[in-house]
Amino acid sequence: MPDTPADITTADPWSRLRRFTRARVGIGRTGHAQTTDAVLAFGLAHAQARDAVHLPLDVRAMDAALREAGQDVLQVHSAAPDRETYLRRPDLGRRLDDAGAAALQPGTPPFDVVFVIADGLSALAAQRHGVPMLQAVLARLRQWHIGPVVVAQQARVALGDDIGERMRARQVVMLIGERPGLSSPDSLGIYLTYDPRVGRTDAQRNCISNVRPEGLPYAQAADRLVFLLRGAVALGRSGVDLKDDSAAVGAALPDGG
Description:
The protein is built from 8 helices and 8 strands, in the order E-E-H-H-E-H-H-E-H-E-H-E-E-E-H-H. The protein has one domain: Rossmann fold, CATH 3.40.50.11240. Helix content is 35%, strand content 16%. The chain has helices at 36-54, 59-68, 83-88, 98-103, 123-138, 159-166, 218-235, 246-252, and strands spanning 9-10, 29-30, 73-77, 114-118, 149-153, 171-177, 188-194, 205-211. By secondary structure, it is an alpha/beta fold.
């Protein structure tokens, strides 16, 4: 009889797929349970997701990075005064507080688009990816009349409607931290609304999700967003009637086109 017990850890045949994703696939098992490494990794991922929700946005650093990139910046706050209220009262995150409303002025002539970088449910995502994502988009919109970049705290997606309406923007683009996942605490979402105004519904927006180097890279997200921005102008609306056919259109273009 051997002196050491047999190894009861069973490798998962899907484990090779882990080379292509950070998702929890192919984690294997020990007997009937998960391996210790998998359990510890799950606990770490859960803690990172919780931290991302409660991490405050470093507005000063964001402002400095945007100004260094040559952008004018406005700072606003939703009607949710703190994080606890923001999480318990989503409605307050959808409208500006009095100071934020007073800070926004309409563009003359109207802005073609206003970009908002917002903490949402992951300030980590906005902090890491907001500025480089914005730079990738602006490089593709050099002929557009772009408004000042608005940095918003305690913001929900619909806060962009209030911002866009007050600034007389033809379109508003919200770069906002998405609800953290167990393998993606820093996922950035992009929401486009044509003719923004208070009362718009989610059906009247277009969304690009999971923007980060491990998900949808900045360049691809920028191409999709520009396609949708131009499509919304041509169609006269955004939302369910505006389809993201950018991949099909790109595939149909000749080489070098």
